[in-house]
Structures are given as C-alpha cells and as structure tokens.
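Dear colleagues,

As part of the handover before I leave the project, I'm documenting each prediction I ran so the next person doesn't have to rerun anything. This entry is a single chain, and its sequence is reproduced below.
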Amino acid sequence: MTINAMTLNAQWRNRAPEEAFWTLDDMRAAMRAEKTASFEREYPARRLIVAADSDGSDVLAIVPNGNSQPLALNHHSFGQLAGLAGAPASYLRTLPAELAADNLTVGLARRDRNERDVSLMANTNTQTVRALTGEHYSRLWGADLAEMIASARDRSGDVYVTPPAWDLDGRFKALGKTRIATAADVGDWTRVKVGDEIRPAGLYYSPNTGKDTFGFLINTERVIDLPRGGSGFRFLMFWNSESGAASVGMAQGIVDIVCGNHILWGLRDVKEFRFRHVGDGLSARAHRELLGAFRALDAAPWESAILQGSTEHRLGSTVQEIEEGAVRATRLPLSTIQAARAAVSARDYGMPGSAYAVASALTEYAQGLRVEDRVDVDRAAGKLYSIAAPSGFTAPRATFN
C-alpha cells in the first residue's frame, strides 16, 4: 500500500456504508462475530467439486467433508479458485455458470496429486467461501489485530480518535448513518466543525470483498512542535486481509490536519511496516510492531525535544564529512545517503549538514523504494532524528509490554 495524502481519502470514497464503523470497538465486535461464524479446513484441491446451482445462475463449491453441503463463492474466492484451476477468472465470469463450473472442475482435476493442500475458509452463517489459500498461508484474523490495537490503546492512557468525516454524497444519510458533529468530535486535528453532518469513516471491515480491514487513529493529546515551525499529530494507519488479498501492515507518521474528506494535509515522517501472511509467529511480529508504533504515538513531548536537537547537530563541515557521519550513524551504504540527498536537494530542511536535514531526506527518499528497502531506510532515519538528544535526556520507558 502506498501511503500518501490520498490514502485515507481513497477508503472514504470507495468503501460502502456497511463497511464503515464509528469506533474501533464497533468494528472489533463485527470482526469477532465473523471469526466465530467462520471455519477453516484443508483439502486437496483436486477433490474440490464445483457445480452450478439449481437455477444455473451461480457457481458453487462442494467440499469433500462427508455432507456435500454446497458453499457459495464470492467475487474474491471465485478468483482464487480460478487461479487454482489455472483458468482466467475474468473469462470464466463471462460464461454460463454450468460451463464455468465444468472448466473449473477440469482444471482442478489436472493438478498434481503431490501438490500441497489448500486451506478453505468459509462463513457458516452465509455458507460462503471467503478464501482459498495455500498451505503455508498464515492467517491473521481481523478480530485478533483489532484486539492488539485496542489493548495497546487502552494501556497507553492517551486519547486516540478516528477523525470525523463529511457525508458529501448523501449515501450514508440515506441509510440513517449520519449525525451532527459535537465538540467532542472536533479539534485542531480536523477541518470538521461543530454542527457539520458526519458519517462513520476511517475504520473499515468488509469480510466478503477481499478488502477486509483498514483503520486510522490519531493521538489528539500530544501535539508535536515541529523544528521548522508549526505543529502536528502522530497517527497510526493499519490494514490486513483475512482472505489472502493483501499483506498485514501499519504505518505511523505525522499529519498537520485531516480534512473532512479524509485528505491528510502536511503528511511527513511516514514509517511503514509490512508482513506477508507466511510462516509461524505472524501475530507476535505484528504485535511487536504495534507496541513500537504506540510508543512513538505516545512520545510527542520528548520527541519534540529530540527533533529540535537534531536540527542543531551538524554531522560534518564538508559534504564528505556529512555523508561519512550519516553512514556511521545509520549503517546505510554511502550510495543510499548520496541518492537521498540528491533526490531532495531542492527541499528546505534547514541546515544542510544537520542530522534533521539528512534524516528528512532519507524519509522522503524512502517513500519511493520497495517496501523491503523502505523499512530499513526509515529505521535508519530514525537513528539520525534521535542522534542529538539533549544532554542528560532519557527517553521514557514504554508504558506497556
């Protein structure tokens, strides 16, 4: 996922009303219900039976579990089944259901007998297959991710909110899902005013489309005074797919203000972490990153002091000394330091040789890199931001484990 000023706005524009929630706790309850109603089984793909329904209007999957209970396929799981059968889903969707089912059956039957099983996940209430994934796929349930976030939020003691959003096209009002913004909804972090009509936004969960989970929280209690003037607020963005459509990831950064259409103004210092749904310990890895993210979200008072110190700490007197100092502090290759400084040479990040200027250049440069490389560069930039903490300064210990 590319994190920019329009990332949250895209969710605001494209998500259906039934996918949006007012609060993290509301979304968590929906996720719990979905997890409770779901089951997972492993089957050889060759043994999956595909057939048209009784009126020939849709394709059904019949799993080899003894009772031959037919399961519907949603758009996402149909695409996954087509992939297993080696057939283009877009073409199969143009065919009559019976013919599409025959093609899928033939494709599945041709799979190698020695191939590993596939994991089928379905909802027992709707009798719908939500996902067909490989044996090595490691599922992180949305309910479990939401529990981690809620636990970290509650332990921190700070106030985290999802900024209010306008209902400009009337879709939510038509369904009775709007209300009038009160003083409790607004603040310096949003352009929404008391009396505006608002709708649920910023927290989304859609178990049947493959989009699954997306959320945005902002720490409204701890204002960050930025070194070159102005102020901002720390935010946490997170996403996940239970059905194999996307990785699990999170991003944190600073934003000046969030518009009522959820455009992020003054976005900066963005750090992104992403994990593929592979291997053991996925939940533990995601939990560790969340704890680190909340420590940063809670850290604004001492973070401002560190940032200010980084603007005054010069890495060297010459270009060579500056670059060598950056390499020592970050352990990044010299070529990366040079590429970052060249890419943002026109930006005004204050004193050119300061730790703050080089760190800001690295952070901006990293946004154009592959995710794997970006994480390393972002973390290295963080070392430069904190290189000149005030004398005698000790960062606070985390408030939770």
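Confidence is low (pLDDT under 50) at residues 390-401. DSSP finds twelve helices and 18 strands in the chain.

All the best with the project,
I.
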